[in-house]
Every structure is written in structure tokens, then in C-alpha cells.
């Protein structure tokens, strides 16, 4: 994350663990062998397996798994709570880096990449495309994100994210902080359209463990509300935090949404590698 050029940082990070984020189960003439099936009139003769014919005196078609190109929409929460700092980095800096890596990965495997930045004052939209010039705009827009206000209202993003009738992959990068259920409504709306949705939940280690030594009060970044804290609160806080995270995970899974907690003290390359491994297990 010390590399300021997002494009270079993303390429550096994903180097060495290139793994598809949308591997398809469609059968066809791909590279990875899947199964044999009996020849049917009209099948492409190029995919006949002559070795199987020599052994069995029957015609078999060799099928493989192929990868399909899809639209990957990266949705970034740019509300003021994303200015929260844990150590050297803020949530929005971590989110930028994660989005840059996933966008680079998707582009490299032929997917169209789009970017949507949601906040109260405005919604920025970069519709999914595949060309290299588009990726330059993608990285530029990521670098320009300036968190402010609360999360966007449904009237601002609904047409942008729900207009497509084809299934897409939506990756929502957020801290899930809202006061009136705005983020929950976004996820519910997109889920109803049968899009595949992944929520990457960013949390600072100091948030998870209530590690604010030296402080006696905290300010809500979106409302300005001041909350007093003390060391005596820590044990009860951690227990409530675990209950909250369990409830959030259950809520997302009940809607068919994949949920991944990303603590900000975890290196981005490790977090993404673990995320991709888990997703590949689910897709199999």
C-alpha cells in the first residue's frame, strides 16, 4: 500500500496468485478437462476423443470447463465513516487498493469492469467496459474518491445498478455503517434481481478490539456525535461486536449474499488470496 500508483500497486499485488473470480460451470471446448459424454448427431467432430474410440469402439465427446466473460461492478462506500483510520491507513485507502486489485484481476481475465462510488452528495458511475483506456479511467476515479456525508439514498443509485437484466457480479466494499438501513436496502434490492453479490466488510482492528488507548471519547464521523469510552467498556464491547458480526453474516447469507470480513490490519494480498480461495471452494 506504500505504492501510490494504484495500477502498479494492483499489478504487483495480484502477481503470483492469479485466480479467476467468476469461473463458470458451463461445459464446452475449454482448456480444463471436465468429463466425457456420448456423441450425439450434430456434435462438433473436432471434440471427438479418438483414444477413447480406440479403447471402447464407441464415440465420446471430450468436454471441458470454460470461463465466461461477465460484467464485474465494484461498488465503493464513500460515506464519511470510510475516513476511519487504523494505524497508517484509512478505510477508503484500503478500499481503493482492494478495488484496484480486483478490477485488475477481472480485466486480465477478460471481464468488463465497472466502478460505482456511492455517497450522500453524489453517485459516480463508470459503466463496465473491457478496453485498456477504460482501466486507466477506472484507476483515476478510484484515486479521486473523497469520503463525505452519509451513504447514498436508493433514488440516487437504483437505476444505475438495477437497470441490467442479465446477471452480473457486484462486489460491494463497505464498512456497513448506516443509520437508516441504506446499505441493507441496496443489498436487498440487488439481491432481488438475482445478481451475484459479494460484500467485503472493512473493519479496523481498533474497532474490532476497542483499542483506543489514550482516548476518552470518540466522534461519529458521519453525525459528529461524541461518545465517551473507558477501559471498563472493552470486554462488553468485544462481546457485542462478535454478536453484531455474527448477525450481519447471517443476514447476508439469508439473502444469498457472500460475506467476507476484511480486518484492515491484514495485508491486502493475504486478504484477497483468502477471499479468492474461499470463493473458488464455494463455486465448485
From TrEMBL:
Q: Which SUPFAM superfamilies match?
A: vWA-like
Q: Which residues form the DUF58 domain?
A: 35-246
A Pfam family annotated for this chain is: DUF58
Write down the InterPro entries for this protein, in alphabetical order. Answer: DUF58, vWFA_dom_sf
Know the name of this protein? DUF58 domain-containing protein
Organism lineage string: Bacteria, Pseudomonadati, Bacteroidota, Chitinophagia, Chitinophagales
Amino acid at each position: 500500500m506504500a505504492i501510490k500508483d494504484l495500477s502498479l500497486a494492483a499489478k504487483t499485488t495480484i502477481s503470483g496468485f492469479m485466480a479467476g473470480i467468476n469461473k463458470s460451470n458451463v461445459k464446452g471446448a475449454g482448456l480444463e478437462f471436465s468429463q466425457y459424454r456420448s456423441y450425439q448427431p450434430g456434435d462438433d467432430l473436432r471434440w471427438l476423443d479418438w483414444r477413447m474410440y480406440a479403447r471402447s469402439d464407441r464415440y465420446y465427446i471430450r468436454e471441458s470447463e470454460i470461463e465466461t466473460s461477465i460484467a464485474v461492478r465494484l461498488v465503493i462506500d464513500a460515506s464519511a465513516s470510510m475516513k476511519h483510520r487504523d494505524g497508517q491507513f484509512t478505510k477508503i485507502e484500503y478500499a481503493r487498493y482492494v478495488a484496484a486489485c480486483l478490477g485488475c484481476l477481472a480485466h486480465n481475465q477478460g471481464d468488463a469492469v465497472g466502478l460505482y462510488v456511492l455517497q450522500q452528495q453524489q453517485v459516480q458511475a463508470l459503466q463496465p467496459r473491457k478496453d485498456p483506456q477504460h482501466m486507466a479511467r477506472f484507476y483515476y476515479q478510484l484515486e479521486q474518491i473523497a469520503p463525505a456525508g452519509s451513504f447514498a439514498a436508493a433514488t440516487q443509485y437504483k437505476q444505475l445498478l438495477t437497470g441490467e437484466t442479465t446477471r452480473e457480479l457486484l462486489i460491494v466494499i463497505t464498512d456497513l455503517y448506516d443509520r437508516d438501513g441504506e446499505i441493507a436496502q441496496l443489498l436487498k434490492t440487488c439481491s432481488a434481481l438475482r445478481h451475484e453479490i459479494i460484500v467485503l466488510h472493512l473493519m479496523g482492528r481498533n474497532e474490532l478490539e476497542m483499542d483506543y488507548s489514550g482516548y476518552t471519547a470518540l466522534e461519529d464521523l458521519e453525525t459528529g456525535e461524541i461518545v465517551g469510552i473507558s477501559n471498563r467498556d472493552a470486554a462488553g464491547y468485544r462481546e457485542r461486536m462478535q454478536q453484531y458480526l455474527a448477525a450481519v453474516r447471517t443476514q447476508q447469507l439469508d439473502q444469498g449474499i457472500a460475506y467476507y470480513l476484511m480486518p484492515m490490519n491484514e495485508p491486502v494480498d493475504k486478504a484477497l488470496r483468502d477471499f479468492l480461495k474461499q470463493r473458488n471452494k464455494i463455486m465448485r
